[in-house]
Amino acid sequence: MTGEAQPGRGVGPLVVVPCSARKLDRPAPVRHLYTGPLHTKARMAAEALTARGGLVLVLSGRRLIFRLDEVVEPYDVVMPERLTDQDVAQLRAEAVRHGVADADDVVLLTPRLYTSAARHIWPHATAALEGSGGIGVMLRRLAEISGTGHLGQRVDGQRRTDRSRAALGG
C-alpha cells in the first residue's frame, strides 16, 4: 500500500478493489486474506495506479471497507443485487471512517455489483471495468493496467493504452 494521505486531493487516487469469495481459512491482513484471481489482479492494478501516491481500499460484500493492512476474519457474504438504505448508510460510515467520503479522484477496479455499491459514495468515480463483460475480459484489463500503471483512454466504449493510440494514428 502506498501513502496514507487524503486521496483525491493531489496526492494520488483512491482505488477501490473488490473482495473475493476465495479466502484464507484464518484471520489475516486483507492484502493476504483474499486469494481469488479478480481480487488479486485488481489489487496489483491498484498498486500500480498508486505507485506514486494514493490509497487502495477493499470493498467487502459485508458492506465494509478495509485497508490492505487490516486483519480480518474470513466470512462468507456476497454483495447483494440491491443495497438497502441501511447498507448505503453503512458504506457511507465506512468511507467516513477511512477519511475518503469526499475523495475527488476515485477509481473503481470492481465488477458490476461492487461498482453499483461504490457509486452510492462516489458517483463521480471512474469505473475502469465497466462494460468489460466476463471475467476473462476483466482480468486482461487489470493486467493491462498493472503493466502500464495507468487507465488509458476510451475508444468506441473500450479502453486502450498509449501504445494502441499510436497504432490508431492518435
Relevant terms:
single chain, about 170 residues, alpha/beta, Rossmann fold, DUF6884 domain-containing protein
Q: What sort of overall outline do the alpha carbons produce when their principal axes are compared?
A: globular
Mean pLDDT: 86
- Side by side, the strands of the main sheet go 4-3-1-6-7
Q: Number of domains in the coordinates?
A: 1
Helix proportion: 25-40%
- Low-pLDDT residue spans: 1-6, 154-170
How many strand segments?
9
Organism: Streptomyces nanshensis
Protein name: DUF6884 domain-containing protein
Domain DUF6884: 15-132
Region (Disordered): 151-170
Task: Give an account of the 3D structure.
With 170 residues, the protein is an alpha/beta fold. The protein has one domain: 3-Layer(aba) Sandwich (Rossmann fold), CATH 3.40.50. It has a 5-stranded mixed β-sheet, with helices on both faces. The protein has a two-stranded antiparallel sheet with strand order 2-5. Helix 2 runs parallel beside helix 5.
Question: How would you sum up this structure in a few lines?
Answer:
The protein is α/β, with parallel strands linked by helices. Helices cover 34% and strands 16% of the residues.
Task: Give the helices and strands, then pairings.
Elements: E1 14-18, E2 28-29, H1 30-33, H2 37-49, E3 55-59, E4 65-67, E5 71-72, H3 85-97, E6 106-108, H4 112-118, E7 126-127, H5 135-148, E8 153-155, E9 158-160, H6 162-167
Parallel strand pairs: 1-3, 1-6, 6-7
Antiparallel strand pairs: 2-5, 3-4, 8-9
Biased composition (Basic and acidic residues): 156-170
Protein name: DUF6884 domain-containing protein
Domain DUF6884: 15-132
